[in-house]
DNA sequence: CCCGTCATGCAATAAAATTGCATCGTTTTG
DNA sequence: CAAAACGATGCAATTTTATTGCATGACGGG
């Protein structure tokens, strides 16, 4: 993992649709050498996957919310059960067990407030293990990167 | 935007590295027709971009943290200034202005706790516009999807 | 100093994307 | 109601791109 690999990763994290020849030229290598590096990065798992990122508005998910969740019972199995439950919801795009002010943080992608309500009703129903939860609607997204700076 | 488009988007959000011929076969179209659909989805911006997703551990960012931030001054320009400031930090992967319990939520990707400390010192220094902030370390990531379910 | 290892570039080959064209179903228009 | 227009499709030819074999040169260990 040298300077060239890092440069490759930077480029591919921004745009993985460019051709290998382009990529090769940008980093100053022959196409074949470049390709072999990229393949190695994929094989070793540094590059996990190549995906399409949609425009949320044009894909019909205009609303984003962050929800912090406090659990009643904190045992490992209770935590796991809640996370499994939350993970199954399509609207949940990220789900984290955290230390500190709360127990779980969810990030939701929603069509509208109606869907928000429906998801909350399912996740935080009476017999669920949730003491309380705070819903914060995203007013403005200043940054939302998939890239990891190298 | 019909059933086939939605199926295409589902597939491409999981794996955009497959060949057009593969994709075409999976959805039951000829390669040329499939390609034209994908190109349209890109051109109209439904597909925003194609990117490489790295394995955070193998890319040297093992630590993730969620930080909630309360501002002193809440005017639009103060909010903007803080968000601009936060956005410039490489470790900040997501930055949201939100309604509700707090003002700003940041999601950080860090090498170690030392970097966490350094970032916090820069973002929440004395003359910054921050009343207080809560740092929550991610213990477990149950879900972290880039996909939007269609 | 020689050998083994590894990454590289070049050129040939294989695979994939792209395009032109004809067809078919649907909608619009006269 | 029929004709025209539009859009999406499949096929096959063409262009572009990825991939591979091979020879070269750099580097480190014995």
UniProtKB/TrEMBL annotation, chains A, B:
Tell me which UniProt keywords the record has, alphabetically: DNA-binding, Transcription, Transcription regulation
Looking at the keywords, is Transcription present?
yes
Annotated ranges, domain HTH asnC-type: 1-62
Say if the entry is tagged with keyword DNA-binding. yes
Alphabetical list of InterPro entries matching this protein: ArsR-like_HTH (IPR011991), AsnC-type_HTH_dom (IPR000485), Dimeric_a/b-barrel (IPR011008), Tscrpt_reg_AsnC-like (IPR019888), Tscrpt_reg_AsnC/Lrp_C (IPR019887), WH-like_DNA-bd_sf (IPR036388), WH_DNA-bd_sf (IPR036390)
Q: Which PROSITE patterns match?
A: HTH_ASNC_2 (PS50956)
Q: Which residues cross the membrane?
A: none
Q: What is the protein's name according to its record?
A: Lrp/AsnC family transcriptional regulator
